[in-house]
Amino acid sequence: MKKIQMVDLVSQYQKIQDQVDKAILDVVRSSAYINGPEVKAFQSDLESYLGVKHVIPCANGTDALQIAMMALGLKPGDEVITATFTYVATAEVIALLGLTPVLVDVDEDTFGLNTDQVREAIGPKTKAIVPVHLFGQCADLETIMQIAKEHNLYVVEDTAQAIGSSYYFENGSSAKAGTIGDIGTTSFFPSKNLGCFGDGGAIFTNDDDLASKIRIIANHGQTVRYYHDMIGVNSRLDSIQAAILRCKLPHLDEYIKARQAVADYYDQAFANTPELKTPVRDSKSEHVFHQYTLQLAEGIDRNKLVEYLQTKDIPAMIYYPVALHMQKAYQDERYQKDDFPITNRLVSRVFSLPMHTELEKDQLEHITSEVLNFIKNH
Ligand SMILES: *Cc1c(COP(=O)(O)O)cnc(C)c1O
């Protein structure tokens, strides 16, 4: 059996190595490292894949969120609602810009924003909502878009973990994650579902005005070279990364299917184990399984489970052990710990099993049988 990894980037690379190596060498030979033709080509490939009018590549997923926030023209003190159970980047950029992150709890099945709490959190200073499509499944976008419409708020979808997922509306229509709110953002960090070989990110929008503002902000706020109309940042996807992403994008749907097949295997193996709550698949969103995250029943020691798996050469991770409302940097007198009962339980109960495109049957058998072994003996 091959060594089990949380993410196996080497095996995935080897399958398309000739093509990727050539794409990298072509960029090196042309030396068009910055804003080369590969960046434009990838942008247009991704626009077609997502069915969105504008893709603006940038340096990473955190920058994508920051630039999106900057493009909305918010003022210091404006409030932005987001989840407390997420990766820190989402709240970080809000706070960095002098805006106020307003944290809310999540839904216990989908880990998406809890829409009842979103409604309660809206006040006169609220300007935007940032749903995070955590672990690969969309938040309740239909309700979030409805709330945003009622209160005239922007929606920025953090799609770093859910690129390629489709969202299905009540009326039968569907759209790709990240193309439904005013702006969508994503990351091409190597371990994401569409990863490059370093840092990368992108911003999506169907709005022409926002797109042109985003392009200007990502390029030092300049409209014409050396004329700066806005305060901007320097955030570019480099040509080598774009060339790699162009090779990988045509495989994204197949990568998603491979992840879903792993999830199906885990689901079946754990179906009759009440101590394990497997990921709930919402009928309104395709789950693209950035992570396969289970909830362990109360009374079973999660750390012991993770340690036990380690002794069997099975990596398992805890995403995320500390919610934002409990982080030193994000503590705020407006919150009490008890305001987030679902997240408080999740941080002590969730664990994620290896999830990637190259998992093999014997590895899955080993992982599931050892998880079940531990549960049986505890
Ligand atoms: C990875 C991630 C980001 C940040 O992306 P980087 O490319 O690492 O900056 C933002 N939000 C979420 C939910 C993520 O998972």
UniProtKB/TrEMBL annotation:
Gene3D superfamilies tied to this protein: Aspartate Aminotransferase, domain 1, Type I PLP-dependent aspartate aminotransferase-like (Major domain)
User: Do you know which InterPro entries this protein is assigned to?
Assistant: DegT/StrS_aminotransferase (IPR000653), PyrdxlP-dep_Trfase (IPR015424), PyrdxlP-dep_Trfase_major (IPR015421), PyrdxlP-dep_Trfase_small (IPR015422)
The answer to whether UniProt assigns keyword Transferase to this entry is yes
One of the protein's GO biological processes: polysaccharide biosynthetic process
N6-(pyridoxal phosphate)lysine: modified positions? K192
What are the positions of the active site? K192 (proton acceptor)
* Any one GO molecular-function label of the UniProt entry: pyridoxal phosphate binding
- Tell me the Pfam families matching this sequence: DegT_DnrJ_EryC1 (PF01041)
Q: Which residues form the signal peptide?
A: none
Q: What are the UniProt keywords, alphabetically?
A: Aminotransferase, Pyridoxal phosphate, Transferase
Q: Which PANTHER family match?
A: 3-OXO-GLUCOSE-6-PHOSPHATE:GLUTAMATE AMINOTRANSFERASE, TRANSAMINASE
Which family is this sequence assigned to?
Belongs to the DegT/DnrJ/EryC1 family.
Protein name, entry field: DegT/DnrJ/EryC1/StrS family aminotransferase
